[in-house]
Write a structure and sequence with these properties.
Length: 361
Protein backbone atom coordinates (compact mmCIF):
# COMPACT_ATOMS: atom_id res chain seq x y z
CA UNK A 1 0.00 0.00 0.00
CA UNK A 2 2.95 2.36 0.44
CA UNK A 3 3.21 2.90 -3.31
CA UNK A 4 -0.52 3.65 -3.53
CA UNK A 5 -0.35 6.14 -0.65
CA UNK A 6 2.68 7.85 -2.18
CA UNK A 7 0.53 8.83 -5.17
CA UNK A 8 -1.64 11.22 -3.10
CA UNK A 9 -0.94 14.63 -1.60
CA UNK A 10 -1.00 13.67 2.08
CA UNK A 11 -0.35 15.85 5.09
CA UNK A 12 2.37 13.98 6.96
CA UNK A 13 3.83 10.51 6.47
CA UNK A 14 1.54 7.45 6.64
CA UNK A 15 1.76 5.49 9.88
CA UNK A 16 -1.20 3.11 9.44
CA UNK A 17 -3.58 1.82 6.78
CA UNK A 18 -6.33 -0.61 7.80
CA UNK A 19 -9.62 -1.90 6.39
CA UNK A 20 -12.51 0.29 7.46
CA UNK A 21 -16.30 0.07 7.51
CA UNK A 22 -18.56 -2.66 6.16
CA UNK A 23 -19.19 -1.67 2.54
CA UNK A 24 -19.77 -4.49 0.05
CA UNK A 25 -18.76 -2.81 -3.24
CA UNK A 26 -15.49 -0.91 -2.90
CA UNK A 27 -12.47 -1.74 -0.71
CA UNK A 28 -12.20 0.93 1.98
CA UNK A 29 -9.27 1.76 4.26
CA UNK A 30 -8.61 4.35 6.96
CA UNK A 31 -5.19 5.96 6.63
CA UNK A 32 -3.49 7.86 9.45
CA UNK A 33 -0.37 10.01 9.19
CA UNK A 34 2.06 11.47 11.71
CA UNK A 35 0.77 15.02 11.11
CA UNK A 36 -1.60 13.76 12.61
CA UNK A 37 -4.18 13.51 9.84
CA UNK A 38 -6.70 10.89 8.74
CA UNK A 39 -8.01 9.92 5.31
CA UNK A 40 -10.29 7.39 3.64
CA UNK A 41 -8.70 5.41 0.79
CA UNK A 42 -10.86 3.37 -1.59
CA UNK A 43 -10.24 0.95 -4.41
CA UNK A 44 -13.14 1.37 -6.83
CA UNK A 45 -14.88 -1.83 -7.88
CA UNK A 46 -14.49 -1.79 -11.65
CA UNK A 47 -16.77 -4.77 -12.15
CA UNK A 48 -19.66 -2.68 -10.82
CA UNK A 49 -18.44 0.70 -12.10
CA UNK A 50 -16.92 0.25 -15.53
CA UNK A 51 -16.86 3.98 -16.37
CA UNK A 52 -14.50 5.19 -13.65
CA UNK A 53 -13.55 8.45 -15.44
CA UNK A 54 -17.25 9.39 -15.75
CA UNK A 55 -17.97 8.35 -12.17
CA UNK A 56 -15.12 10.46 -10.81
CA UNK A 57 -16.07 13.46 -12.98
CA UNK A 58 -19.53 13.31 -11.43
CA UNK A 59 -18.16 13.17 -7.89
CA UNK A 60 -15.57 15.92 -8.45
CA UNK A 61 -18.13 18.26 -10.04
CA UNK A 62 -20.87 17.71 -7.47
CA UNK A 63 -18.61 17.94 -4.41
CA UNK A 64 -17.04 21.15 -5.76
CA UNK A 65 -20.55 22.58 -6.21
CA UNK A 66 -21.59 21.52 -2.68
CA UNK A 67 -18.40 22.89 -1.14
CA UNK A 68 -19.31 26.41 -2.26
CA UNK A 69 -22.39 26.14 -0.03
CA UNK A 70 -20.75 24.47 2.99
CA UNK A 71 -20.11 26.34 6.23
CA UNK A 72 -18.13 23.42 7.69
CA UNK A 73 -15.60 21.33 5.73
CA UNK A 74 -17.18 18.20 7.23
CA UNK A 75 -20.43 18.96 5.39
CA UNK A 76 -19.15 17.72 2.04
CA UNK A 77 -16.81 14.96 0.95
CA UNK A 78 -13.38 16.33 0.04
CA UNK A 79 -11.35 14.51 -2.59
CA UNK A 80 -7.58 14.43 -2.07
CA UNK A 81 -5.78 15.00 -5.39
CA UNK A 82 -3.02 12.76 -6.63
CA UNK A 83 0.51 14.11 -6.96
CA UNK A 84 -0.38 14.73 -10.62
CA UNK A 85 -3.46 16.74 -9.67
CA UNK A 86 -5.97 14.07 -10.71
CA UNK A 87 -9.05 12.98 -8.77
CA UNK A 88 -7.99 9.32 -8.72
CA UNK A 89 -4.94 7.14 -9.35
CA UNK A 90 -4.67 4.21 -11.77
CA UNK A 91 -2.09 1.64 -10.65
CA UNK A 92 0.11 -0.35 -13.04
CA UNK A 93 -2.31 -3.30 -12.72
CA UNK A 94 -5.20 -0.95 -13.67
CA UNK A 95 -6.79 -0.72 -10.22
CA UNK A 96 -8.41 2.67 -9.57
CA UNK A 97 -7.84 4.35 -6.21
CA UNK A 98 -9.23 7.55 -4.70
CA UNK A 99 -8.87 9.31 -1.38
CA UNK A 100 -11.09 11.53 0.77
CA UNK A 101 -10.58 13.56 3.90
CA UNK A 102 -11.71 11.57 6.94
CA UNK A 103 -14.79 13.18 8.49
CA UNK A 104 -13.85 13.77 12.13
CA UNK A 105 -16.21 13.52 15.11
CA UNK A 106 -18.75 11.70 12.97
CA UNK A 107 -21.09 8.76 13.40
CA UNK A 108 -22.50 6.30 10.85
CA UNK A 109 -25.45 4.01 11.67
CA UNK A 110 -26.48 0.82 9.87
CA UNK A 111 -29.94 0.91 11.44
CA UNK A 112 -31.87 3.78 13.08
CA UNK A 113 -31.67 3.62 16.85
CA UNK A 114 -34.63 5.96 17.22
CA UNK A 115 -37.40 7.74 15.32
CA UNK A 116 -35.14 10.82 15.37
CA UNK A 117 -32.27 9.02 13.62
CA UNK A 118 -34.43 8.24 10.59
CA UNK A 119 -35.79 11.78 10.60
CA UNK A 120 -32.24 13.14 10.52
CA UNK A 121 -31.34 10.91 7.57
CA UNK A 122 -34.38 12.46 5.84
CA UNK A 123 -32.96 15.89 6.63
CA UNK A 124 -29.61 14.84 5.13
CA UNK A 125 -31.04 13.62 1.83
CA UNK A 126 -33.50 16.53 1.75
CA UNK A 127 -30.60 18.97 2.11
CA UNK A 128 -28.81 17.09 -0.64
CA UNK A 129 -31.80 17.68 -2.95
CA UNK A 130 -32.09 21.30 -1.83
CA UNK A 131 -28.43 22.12 -2.39
CA UNK A 132 -28.40 20.50 -5.84
CA UNK A 133 -31.80 21.71 -7.01
CA UNK A 134 -30.23 24.18 -9.46
CA UNK A 135 -27.44 21.87 -10.60
CA UNK A 136 -27.80 20.89 -14.30
CA UNK A 137 -28.60 17.21 -13.78
CA UNK A 138 -28.36 16.42 -17.49
CA UNK A 139 -24.62 17.18 -17.43
CA UNK A 140 -23.93 14.18 -15.20
CA UNK A 141 -22.82 10.82 -16.57
CA UNK A 142 -25.30 7.95 -16.21
CA UNK A 143 -22.85 5.73 -14.32
CA UNK A 144 -25.18 2.70 -14.35
CA UNK A 145 -27.46 3.09 -17.38
CA UNK A 146 -31.21 2.63 -16.72
CA UNK A 147 -30.53 2.08 -13.02
CA UNK A 148 -34.04 3.09 -11.90
CA UNK A 149 -35.81 2.34 -15.15
CA UNK A 150 -38.52 0.23 -13.49
CA UNK A 151 -40.13 -0.97 -16.76
CA UNK A 152 -36.71 -2.24 -17.88
CA UNK A 153 -36.30 -4.09 -14.58
CA UNK A 154 -39.61 -5.82 -15.26
CA UNK A 155 -38.40 -6.65 -18.77
CA UNK A 156 -35.38 -8.34 -17.23
CA UNK A 157 -37.65 -10.26 -14.86
CA UNK A 158 -39.77 -11.51 -17.75
CA UNK A 159 -36.61 -12.59 -19.61
CA UNK A 160 -35.55 -14.59 -16.54
CA UNK A 161 -39.01 -16.18 -16.39
CA UNK A 162 -38.90 -17.10 -20.07
CA UNK A 163 -35.40 -18.61 -19.89
CA UNK A 164 -35.57 -20.14 -16.37
CA UNK A 165 -31.83 -20.94 -16.54
CA UNK A 166 -31.64 -22.39 -13.01
CA UNK A 167 -34.84 -24.43 -13.29
CA UNK A 168 -36.52 -22.62 -10.40
CA UNK A 169 -39.72 -21.44 -12.09
CA UNK A 170 -42.02 -23.93 -10.37
CA UNK A 171 -40.79 -22.90 -6.90
CA UNK A 172 -41.87 -19.27 -7.15
CA UNK A 173 -45.05 -19.03 -9.21
CA UNK A 174 -47.01 -17.02 -6.57
CA UNK A 175 -44.18 -14.50 -6.42
CA UNK A 176 -44.03 -14.25 -10.23
CA UNK A 177 -47.80 -13.70 -10.35
CA UNK A 178 -47.54 -10.92 -7.75
CA UNK A 179 -44.85 -8.94 -9.53
CA UNK A 180 -46.33 -9.31 -12.99
CA UNK A 181 -49.70 -8.15 -11.63
CA UNK A 182 -48.01 -4.86 -10.69
CA UNK A 183 -46.18 -4.35 -13.98
CA UNK A 184 -48.77 -1.84 -15.23
CA UNK A 185 -47.59 0.62 -12.54
CA UNK A 186 -43.91 0.30 -13.37
CA UNK A 187 -43.69 3.18 -15.85
CA UNK A 188 -45.86 5.80 -14.15
CA UNK A 189 -43.01 8.00 -12.87
CA UNK A 190 -40.82 7.67 -15.96
CA UNK A 191 -43.81 8.58 -18.12
CA UNK A 192 -44.28 11.78 -16.11
CA UNK A 193 -40.60 12.60 -16.63
CA UNK A 194 -40.79 11.95 -20.36
CA UNK A 195 -43.78 14.28 -20.72
CA UNK A 196 -42.04 17.05 -18.77
CA UNK A 197 -44.39 16.89 -15.80
CA UNK A 198 -41.59 15.89 -13.42
CA UNK A 199 -38.19 17.63 -13.41
CA UNK A 200 -34.92 15.78 -13.79
CA UNK A 201 -32.94 16.00 -10.54
CA UNK A 202 -29.49 15.12 -9.27
CA UNK A 203 -30.16 11.95 -7.30
CA UNK A 204 -28.02 9.86 -4.98
CA UNK A 205 -29.63 6.50 -5.80
CA UNK A 206 -28.47 4.69 -2.65
CA UNK A 207 -30.24 6.59 0.10
CA UNK A 208 -29.66 4.26 3.04
CA UNK A 209 -29.11 5.55 6.57
CA UNK A 210 -25.50 4.29 6.54
CA UNK A 211 -24.73 6.70 3.70
CA UNK A 212 -25.28 9.65 6.04
CA UNK A 213 -22.57 10.92 8.37
CA UNK A 214 -24.00 12.32 11.61
CA UNK A 215 -22.25 14.57 14.10
CA UNK A 216 -21.36 12.21 16.94
CA UNK A 217 -22.29 14.78 19.57
CA UNK A 218 -25.49 16.29 18.19
CA UNK A 219 -26.57 13.34 15.96
CA UNK A 220 -27.54 15.85 13.28
CA UNK A 221 -26.43 15.28 9.67
CA UNK A 222 -23.05 16.40 8.44
CA UNK A 223 -23.02 15.10 4.89
CA UNK A 224 -24.08 12.39 2.48
CA UNK A 225 -21.40 9.89 1.46
CA UNK A 226 -21.00 7.07 -1.10
CA UNK A 227 -21.51 9.25 -4.15
CA UNK A 228 -20.69 6.59 -6.76
CA UNK A 229 -24.28 6.40 -7.99
CA UNK A 230 -24.92 10.14 -8.32
CA UNK A 231 -26.84 10.41 -11.59
CA UNK A 232 -29.77 12.21 -13.18
CA UNK A 233 -33.04 10.89 -11.73
CA UNK A 234 -36.24 11.63 -9.84
CA UNK A 235 -36.66 12.93 -6.30
CA UNK A 236 -39.29 10.21 -5.70
CA UNK A 237 -36.69 7.52 -6.40
CA UNK A 238 -34.36 8.77 -3.66
CA UNK A 239 -37.25 9.28 -1.21
CA UNK A 240 -38.72 5.91 -2.08
CA UNK A 241 -35.55 3.89 -1.60
CA UNK A 242 -35.08 5.46 1.84
CA UNK A 243 -38.58 4.35 2.81
CA UNK A 244 -38.11 0.85 1.38
CA UNK A 245 -35.02 0.39 3.52
CA UNK A 246 -35.55 2.65 6.53
CA UNK A 247 -39.28 2.32 7.26
CA UNK A 248 -39.34 -1.47 7.13
CA UNK A 249 -39.70 -3.18 10.51
CA UNK A 250 -37.56 -6.17 9.52
CA UNK A 251 -34.39 -7.09 7.70
CA UNK A 252 -34.41 -7.22 3.92
CA UNK A 253 -34.03 -11.02 4.00
CA UNK A 254 -36.37 -11.79 6.94
CA UNK A 255 -38.00 -15.20 6.50
CA UNK A 256 -40.84 -14.59 8.97
CA UNK A 257 -43.08 -12.26 6.97
CA UNK A 258 -45.25 -11.55 10.02
CA UNK A 259 -42.37 -9.33 11.17
CA UNK A 260 -42.36 -7.30 7.95
CA UNK A 261 -44.36 -4.12 7.57
CA UNK A 262 -43.95 -0.52 6.45
CA UNK A 263 -44.06 1.50 9.67
CA UNK A 264 -46.21 4.61 9.29
CA UNK A 265 -44.42 6.27 12.19
CA UNK A 266 -41.04 5.74 10.49
CA UNK A 267 -42.51 6.87 7.17
CA UNK A 268 -43.71 10.06 8.87
CA UNK A 269 -40.36 10.62 10.56
CA UNK A 270 -38.44 10.40 7.31
CA UNK A 271 -41.01 12.46 5.38
CA UNK A 272 -40.86 15.22 7.98
CA UNK A 273 -37.08 15.38 7.85
CA UNK A 274 -36.91 15.19 4.05
CA UNK A 275 -39.60 17.79 3.37
CA UNK A 276 -38.35 20.16 6.06
CA UNK A 277 -35.02 20.30 4.23
CA UNK A 278 -36.13 20.37 0.60
CA UNK A 279 -39.90 20.85 0.47
CA UNK A 280 -39.68 24.35 -0.94
CA UNK A 281 -37.61 23.07 -3.88
CA UNK A 282 -40.05 20.36 -4.95
CA UNK A 283 -43.00 20.90 -7.24
CA UNK A 284 -46.51 19.97 -6.13
CA UNK A 285 -46.51 16.91 -8.37
CA UNK A 286 -43.11 15.80 -7.06
CA UNK A 287 -44.54 15.79 -3.56
CA UNK A 288 -47.59 13.87 -4.71
CA UNK A 289 -45.40 11.18 -6.24
CA UNK A 290 -43.32 10.50 -3.11
CA UNK A 291 -45.54 7.61 -1.88
CA UNK A 292 -45.47 6.11 -5.37
CA UNK A 293 -41.69 6.40 -5.27
CA UNK A 294 -41.68 4.23 -2.15
CA UNK A 295 -43.92 1.63 -3.75
CA UNK A 296 -42.08 1.54 -7.08
CA UNK A 297 -38.62 1.30 -5.51
CA UNK A 298 -39.85 -1.63 -3.42
CA UNK A 299 -41.40 -3.33 -6.46
CA UNK A 300 -38.27 -2.68 -8.50
CA UNK A 301 -35.93 -4.08 -5.87
CA UNK A 302 -38.14 -7.09 -5.31
CA UNK A 303 -38.30 -7.80 -9.04
CA UNK A 304 -34.50 -7.70 -9.16
CA UNK A 305 -34.23 -10.19 -6.28
CA UNK A 306 -36.73 -12.50 -8.00
CA UNK A 307 -34.98 -12.25 -11.37
CA UNK A 308 -31.64 -13.05 -9.73
CA UNK A 309 -33.19 -16.06 -7.99
CA UNK A 310 -34.49 -17.34 -11.32
CA UNK A 311 -31.11 -16.70 -12.96
CA UNK A 312 -29.27 -18.75 -10.35
CA UNK A 313 -28.10 -15.99 -7.96
CA UNK A 314 -25.57 -14.38 -10.26
CA UNK A 315 -25.73 -10.78 -9.03
CA UNK A 316 -26.61 -10.45 -5.33
CA UNK A 317 -24.52 -12.25 -2.73
CA UNK A 318 -26.45 -15.12 -1.15
CA UNK A 319 -25.90 -17.19 1.99
CA UNK A 320 -28.56 -19.86 1.39
CA UNK A 321 -30.35 -21.44 -1.59
CA UNK A 322 -33.55 -19.34 -1.35
CA UNK A 323 -31.92 -16.15 -0.09
CA UNK A 324 -32.98 -14.02 -3.06
CA UNK A 325 -36.48 -15.51 -2.98
CA UNK A 326 -36.79 -14.55 0.69
CA UNK A 327 -35.72 -11.02 -0.24
CA UNK A 328 -38.30 -10.88 -3.02
CA UNK A 329 -40.96 -11.97 -0.53
CA UNK A 330 -40.12 -9.26 2.01
CA UNK A 331 -40.49 -6.64 -0.72
CA UNK A 332 -43.85 -8.16 -1.68
CA UNK A 333 -45.01 -7.88 1.92
CA UNK A 334 -43.88 -4.25 2.09
CA UNK A 335 -45.76 -3.42 -1.12
CA UNK A 336 -48.94 -5.04 0.20
CA UNK A 337 -48.60 -3.11 3.45
CA UNK A 338 -48.05 0.16 1.58
CA UNK A 339 -51.19 -0.51 -0.45
CA UNK A 340 -53.14 -1.06 2.78
CA UNK A 341 -51.76 2.21 4.19
CA UNK A 342 -51.88 4.19 0.96
CA UNK A 343 -54.36 6.84 2.09
CA UNK A 344 -52.40 7.39 5.31
CA UNK A 345 -49.12 7.73 3.40
CA UNK A 346 -50.64 10.32 1.05
CA UNK A 347 -52.17 12.22 3.98
CA UNK A 348 -48.82 12.41 5.76
CA UNK A 349 -47.14 13.84 2.65
CA UNK A 350 -49.98 16.33 2.15
CA UNK A 351 -49.82 17.45 5.78
CA UNK A 352 -46.04 17.80 5.85
CA UNK A 353 -46.13 19.54 2.47
CA UNK A 354 -48.37 22.26 3.87
CA UNK A 355 -45.72 23.10 6.46
CA UNK A 356 -43.05 23.36 3.76
CA UNK A 357 -44.87 25.02 0.82
CA UNK A 358 -43.75 24.80 -2.79
CA UNK A 359 -42.17 27.57 -4.80
CA UNK A 360 -43.83 26.51 -8.05
CA UNK A 361 -46.24 23.90 -9.31
Amino acid sequence: MRNILSQFRLEGAPVSCARYGNGHINETYKVETDAPHAYILQKINRRVFSNVPGLMRNIAAVTAYLRRQADDPRRVLTLIPTVDGESYYVSPDQDCWRMYEFITDSLCLDQPESWEDLKQSGVAFGEFQNQLADYPADTLIEVIPRFHDTPDRFRQLKEAIARDPAGRLSSCQPEIDFYLAHESEAGCLIDLLKTGKLPLRVTHNDTKLNNVMLDQFTRTPLCVIDLDTIMPGLAAHDFGDSIRFGASTAAEDEKDLDKVEMSLSLFEAYAEGFLSACGSRLTALEKETLPMGAKLMTLECGSRFLADYLNGDVYFHTARPEHNLDRARTQMKLVRDMENKWDAMRSIIAEKGLHFPILNS
